[in-house]
Amino acid sequence: MANFSRKRILVVEDDEAVRKLITKAFEAGYDVTSAPDGLIATELLSSGPLPDLVIADVMMPYVDGLTLARMMKSDNRLARIPIIFLTAKTGPSSMIKGIQAGAKHYMEKPFVVAHLVDRVKQLLK
């Protein structure tokens, strides 16, 4: 059951193990919803309660993270929701593309869960 006084996080990750790891890291302090790809994430964003933050993989089937971020930034209801990208794509050009798409943070995989938790706390202050 959702606790509406807690912040909401949407985790969008096609790797089930990583999705579960992230969900477990946040479920004690946040209401966490997850989606296995960007297409399902767009459905959740259009129909459910809005998250306070989105954690998304960049490379996913159907709708990738960059497309999801651009879609969110073009929608007035979603434009202010911070996005953290997690990705195996490394290098400055990939990071620049992620930031240009609307990400507040860009973390390379493998990532340290404690660092992700810290970034989420910073963004949701």
Give the topology:
Elements: E1 8-12, H1 16-26, E2 31-35, H2 38-47, E3 53-57, H3 65-73, E4 83-87, H4 92-101, E5 105-108, H5 113-123
Parallel strand pairs: 1-2, 1-3, 3-4, 4-5
Task: Explain what you see.
- With 125 residues, this protein is an alpha/beta fold.
- The protein has one domain (8-123): Response regulator (Rossmann fold, 3-Layer(aba) Sandwich).
- Helices cover 41% and strands 19% of the residues.
- It contains five helices and five strands; from the N terminus they run βαβαβαβαβα.
- A five-stranded parallel beta sheet has the order 2-1-3-4-5, with helices on both faces.
- The longest helix is centred in the N-terminal third of the chain and has 11 residues, at 16-26.
- It is globular.
- It starts with 7 loop residues before the first strand and ends with a helix.
Q: What oligomeric state do the depicted chains represent?
A: single chain
Number of strands: 5
In what order do the strands lie side by side in the largest sheet?
A: 2-1-3-4-5
**Main sheet properties:** 5 strands, parallel
Strand portion, in percent?
15-25%
Helix content: 40-55%
Shape: globular
Q: Ends: how far apart?
A: 23 Å
CATH class: Alpha Beta
Question: What sequence of helices (H) and strands (E) makes up the elements?
Answer: EHEHEHEHEH
What's the CATH topology label?
Answer: Rossmann fold
Give the number of helices. 5
Mean pLDDT: 93
Gyration radius over CA: 13 Å
Give the count of structural domains: 1
Q: Can you identify the CATH superfamily?
A: Response regulator
Instruction: Assign the structural class, choosing from mainly alpha, mainly beta, alpha/beta, alpha+beta, or little secondary structure.
Output: alpha/beta
Specify the CATH architecture.
3-Layer(aba) Sandwich
Low-confidence stretches: none
